[in-house]
Design a protein that fits this description.
With 204 residues, the protein is an all-beta fold. It has strands at 8-9, 17-18, 23-24, 34-35, 41-42, 49-50, 59-61, 68-70, 75-76, 86-87, 92-93, 106-107, 112-113, 124-125, 130-131, 144-145, 150-151, 161-162, 167-168, 182-183, 188-190, 197-199. It has three domains: 1-50, no CATH class; 52-106, Tumor Necrosis Factor Receptor, subunit A, domain 2 (Ribbon); 108-204. Helix content is 0%, strand content 24%. It comes from Triparma retinervis.
Amino acid sequence: CVTCSPGKYRPTPGTCSPCTGSTYTSTSGEISCTSCTGGTWANADNTGCISDTTCAAGSGQAAAGGTCEVCPIGKYNGAEDDSQCIICPTGKFNPNTGSTAISDCEACPVGRYSVEYATLSECTACTPGKHNANTGATLESDCLDCSTGKYVETEAAETCIFCPTGKFNPSTTGASSVSSCSDCQAGEDASDDSTSCVTCTAGK
């Protein structure tokens, strides 16, 4: 028993013939082709119908019934139909236009997050004084304040930095400048976590 593939039909047992003209079959095993209707015509392999508003993969309609436009950054569309481009999931971004698959949406790198999708070519950066060590962050709150004893002056930081030698920060979280670190007094040095000062041992 022969099962004819989409785009073909079985006119007689054991044979397959291609659909022609504006006819199609979209599933296997059909015994006849179906005619396209409503101002549409068969696609190149006669597996479905298309119209003037059928968009190629990597593009989509700007609005229902509208014209086709290349998918902008932050979106994709793998279908060849009249659908619209799809927004990348939260925690991901897409810096390219004309994308055809969800795999083109990349996870936000460390130090960044995406609540919806990147409207520019990258995810939103954590602000100075905050850090994020995980990829695919979906919330601004995923950017954590630097703990006491640390600071970071740059945006999109993965980690915060300990206060310099001889300086400490006992109480300020989310410090965005080294100026938040204070000098230890003479004869003292900062503790290992830079949150306090300790008396130097003899000879040091």
